[in-house]
Amino acid sequence: MLRVPWTARKTNEEVLKETETTRSVMNRIRRRQAKFVGHIMRREGLENLITIGRMEGNKSRGRQREKMLDGMTSWMGTKRVTDALSETWDRESWKDMIANAKGQGT
Q1: Which among 87, 82, 91, 77 has a CA at the least distance from the CA of 30?
Q2: Beta-carbon neighbour count of residue 20 at 10 Å?
Q3: pLDDT tens digits along 69-105
Q4: pLDDT per residue over 10-69, tens digit each?
Q5: How far apart are CA 48 and CA 40, in angstroms?
Q6: Molecular function terms in GO for this entry (predicted)?
């Protein structure tokens, strides 16, 4: 195990290069989110409506919050949310899509 004192003034990227490892926590989180979305989208229920639903009224001021589906589609490398959601009905293609995700946005 590599021991790096806090006074060494090394960045996280430098330490990762020295240990020859990559960041895997974000990929794990994104994969679990994608599995959860696939599970929700295959059901006809309130969760499905909430996930893909739109709210009526005016947008609030300031920077808009990133939606979970937008982050997931950028991570998977698909262009539109509807393309990704249409794949959820075919479980095997959805699993392949998650396994072959490009890992962007991590």
Answers
A1: 77
A2: 6
A3: 877 777 777 778 777 788 888 888 888 888 887 665 4
A4: 998 898 898 888 878 888 888 888 888 888 888 888 877 777 776 677 877 888 777 778
A5: 6
A6: translation initiation factor activity
Q: For position 106, what pLDDT does the model report?
A: 46
Q: Which residues contact 77 (CB under 8 A, 6 or more apart)?
A: 101, 102, 104
Residue 92 CA to residue 74 CA, distance in Å, equals 20
What one-character-per-residue DSSP string does the chain give? Answer: -----GGG---HHHHHHHHT----HHHHHHHHHHHHHHHHHTS-SHHHHHHH----SPPPSSSPPPPHHHHHHHHHT-S-HHHHHHGGGSHHHHHHHHHT---TT-
How far apart are the C-alpha atoms of 46 and 33, rounded to whole Å? 18
